[in-house]
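Action item from last week, closing it out:
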Amino acid sequence: MDLVKELQKLGWTELEARIYLTMVASPKSLTGYQVAKHARVARANVYPVLDRLLRRGAVIEDPDPSGNRYQAVPFNLVSQAQLRSVSQTLSAIEENLPPVHRQHRLITARGDNALQTHATKLVVAARHSLDIGASHKTIQPFAGVLNQAHDRGVAEQFLCFDNCPVPGCGVCHNPIPVSPGTFHSRGWLVLIRDNEETLIASGDGEKAELVLTNMEPVREILRILFAVVERKRENFEAQDTGNERN
């Protein structure tokens, strides 16, 4: 592996990479003259590069009466600092960029295969949040990809449209029942990915019908549904806590 080229991929200059690797290979600190000699770089070019490496955190400086000496910082510390810096930069860019105005999209499809394809793609693409309303029959096939989303830290909220009997279907985590009646599988599925894309499906098998859209009105109505149901659960929990205290 050409380490000079690999460091250049991370934004280092060729001289920064050559000088840093020279210093890593040295068991003791070096003067600027020694760095220039070992790296085969003109002495006049060494000190500006050392200054940049100092600011990058890749080198430390040890003042000495005979002249400053320099020593490389272990690369695992350098890489951690660079990762934090890149992460902070990306977050700042994301916060300050204006929102992307996407073209409105509304797709309709029929059949279980289409439902499997579009719903799976939506869940796999989720990075931040998934709002899920589902019936027993329609949520079961997506147990695997939903578990993967949960494991990668996607925030989930579940509504149960079937009022499943305890302990439930086992796919939803802490679901909120929204059906006032007894258990009845209605074949509904609602998915909202990262508050950007919505899938609504009804029925199963070849009779399944679905809509996939990024249109704000559809998403906003469903967000209101989720918010109202969540607020009701909070009120019920608060009442139960009050009753226990009394």
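Closing note: The radius of gyration is 29 Å.
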